[in-house]
Amino acid sequence: MNETATLWWDAESTSIHYIEQTLLPNEYSIIKCRGIEKLATAIRRLEIRGAPALGVAGAYGVALAAVLADGKDLKSFMEAVNRDSDILRSTRPTAINLAWGIDRVLAAMKPEQTPADAVTRAIVTAEEIAREDTACCHAIGRHGAALLPDSCTVLTHCNAGALACSSWGTALGVIRSAVNAGKQVKVISCETRPLLQGARLTAWELARDGIDVTTITDSTAAHLMRKGAIDAVVVGADRITRDAIFNKIGTYMHAVCAHHHKIPFYVAAPRSTFDPKNSEQDVIIEERGRDEVTIMGSRTYVPEGAHVKNYAFDATPMELVTAVITETGVLRPPIDIHKLLSHQSTT
Length: 347
Ligand code: MRU
Description:
alpha/beta; binds 5-S-methyl-1-O-phosphono-5-thio-D-ribulose; 39% helix
């Protein structure tokens, strides 16, 4: 199966390289990025997207900020790095991994006494985060694969695949690992309005790996569940608070339907997605621009006089979740995320 990284640090040019995801599936393009504003725009435009990939992007972003500020005295150097980190942190509010990646690199730099040492520490830590993310995805895959029947049809929403992570994927990591273990897995990929991550990215990734994938409109999911055509739902997460799973808008709808039809609803996410300090009400759900909903191709589908709401994420209450699959194992209700975070990593 394809194990290309989604984004990486290029030591020679001291820059970030990434797959430009808004162009897929029509064009596969690698972008070189050596500017903080450019990286912030890429994150806002979803050229780089998906919670774990945002964590890695935040980490590499701080490393890039450090490289760009090198040569200043330590105080001005750290001021510049903190300013750039704040720019990156403010790009997308819901996925907690972004701030997690940024803060981890900043913390690693702190004890260093010279900018040059801090730059080295930042790059080493960011690369460590990227490697760990891939290892987490493989561990999530192994734990999750054991939950799937030998022959099954799995519904997924948005893209929680290699493109949303360093590589391999969380929800799609579970599917990839199950297929590698010899299970017959068919995937139903919801298109995921309005930006079509399911249609454009999940279907592209799985088809490229030779995994059986069928794209449906989001509103077809309930119909298929009612017909008995779905054996399990597996999705990723952008943030897991004490009481809820935040993921792409539409996830809650699938969770309610799965619960009604007694279909297991699994959430696959690394521990960097957990936010034990907060509960659902504390989290900002990103709202995006009107054009994403109203315009398709060159046509406008909503009259100017109509209001539009474009929430990027929703919250699914924990009681609708059958299990959370993480790198340390499978958590079943009652899900206590404090307990989970105190477990030793098994990756
Ligand atoms: O707006 P996006 O494309 O960044 O949203 C991504 C999702 O909702 C994913 O399901 C989530 O980040 C988990 S990725 C492993």
